[in-house]
Amino acid sequence: MERKKPLYMISVVAEMLHIHPQTLRIYEREGFIKPKRTEGNTRLYSDEDIERIKTVLRLTRDMGVNLAGVDMILGMRERMEQKRREMEEMMRHLSEEIRAEFRRREEDIKRFSREGSKEKVITVKIED
After folding, report:
1. What is the number of other CB atoms lying within 10 angstroms of the CB of residue 52?
2. Above 60 in pLDDT, residue 121?
3. Is the pTM of this model over 0.85?
């Protein structure tokens, strides 16, 4: 059973973050957040939305970044995250290929050893 994540109305989020609800509307218009909507078109913010808003607030308040700069920074962060996920997938794939190659070589060594070679054979053990 999947547990539902909490969603918050605009007034609650504004109060939580000590900002005006209009600021949240601006952030939505700028594309920084995309809150869910009820059938009555009420905005509902997730915990992920709130974390993103906090990031925007840190950039604007603490670092003096304007909204255009925030847009660029968030875009770069998203691209970096995508590249990180691609790199993890590539590393996972390479790791699997290397393990498979070690297993093949281990089998070759065992077969070579069974065939009675007079050469020294080193056995490699692979741990998963």
Report:
1. 17
2. no
3. no
Residue spans of the domains in the chain: they are 8-96
Burial class (CB in 10 A: 0-12, 13-18, 19+), 24: buried
What's the half-sphere exposure (Cβ side, CA atoms, 13 Å) at 10? 18
Q: Cβ(99)–Cβ(127) under 8 Å?
A: no
Q: What pLDDT was estimated at residue 68?
A: 96
Task: Name the DSSP letter for residue 107.
Answer: H
Contact 19, 27 (CB under 8 A): no
Residues near 52 by beta carbon (within 8 Å), at least 6 away in sequence: 32, 33, 74
Query: Residue 82 and residue 88: Cα distance in Å, rounded?
Result: 10
Taking only the tens place, the pLDDT of each residue in 45-104 is 999 999 999 999 999 999 999 999 999 999 999 999 999 999 999 999 999 999 999 999
| pLDDT band per the 50, 70, 90 thresholds, residue 128 | low
Alpha helix stretches (DSSP H) within 31-124: 47-57, 67-114
The CATH code of the domain at 8-96 is: 1.10.1660.10
